[in-house]
Amino acid sequence: MAKVIIFGVLDTAELAHYYLQHDSEHEVAGFAVNREYLADESFHGLPVVAFEDVEKIFSPAEYSFFAPMTGRNMNRNREKIYNEAKAKGYSFISYISSRATIFDKSVVGENCFILEDNTIQPYTTIGNNVVIWSGNHIGHHGKIKDHVFFTSHVVMSGHCVIEPYCFFGVNSTIRDYMHIEQGTLVGMASAVTKDTEEWGIYIGNPAKKVPGKKSFEAY
């Protein structure tokens, strides 16, 4: 059992606290936020400390870290905290719901947040710092790289490669054998039938690239 510090005190952190307390072997020991957002000293009866000082209060030798943040700035905000906590010496947990279907949890990297009703088929690997919200189909023989966010009811068909920093909206679909380049934003209910371009925004069915705009400018 690991004692865990969660980054944040907003919705995603609160949900992470709930899931870890009710559906994991881990014990949540406290929360950390950037100093400028440190308004209260406790949250759910646990201490909240400045992230800048967290390693002085909760030693990385005794505590693990978890930063299950949103996909804002195309997952780069979450990547920043992930890298900074790693530089402080922390190891990371991942949370995989007991109600997700996955046959080999070792294919999942660190600091991943995988919620209930996900189906992750064999021979697909998932990198570090990935969020897969509730109710997705993750197809076989695929590769999801670091810093990716799936919302809900996304279908990733078999043999897909998802590069870092991608974001998939609700009810989006990725055809089999697709290569989704880094920074791709797929809008909700959009169906990707061709390989994408880096930092592109794709909407519609079939999905088409939004001209003249980069994903990090939109989200």
Rg over alpha carbons:
17 Å
Number of beta-strand segments: 23
Q: What is the string of helix and strand elements?
A: EHEEEHEHEEEEEEEEEEEEEEEEEEH
Low-confidence stretches: none
Care to describe what's here?
The chain is of the alpha/beta class. The protein has two domains: 3-87, Rossmann fold; 95-207, Hexapeptide repeat proteins (UDP N-Acetylglucosamine Acyltransferase, domain 1, 3 Solenoid), CATH 2.160.10. 15% of the residues lie in helices and 27% in strands. The protein has four helices and 23 strands. It has helices at residues 11-23, 54-57, 76-87, 215-218, and strands at 3-7, 27-33, 42-43, 46-50, 64-66, 95-96, 101-102, 113-114, 119-120, 125-126, 131-132, 137-138, 143-144, 149-150, 155-156, 161-162, 167-168, 173-174, 179-180, 185-186, 191-192, 201-203, 208-209. The chain has an eight-stranded mixed beta sheet with strand order 6-8-11-14-17-20-22-23, with helices on one face. The radius of gyration is 17 Å and the shape is globular.
Describe this structure in a few short sentences.
With 219 residues, the protein is of the alpha/beta class. It has four helices and 23 strands.
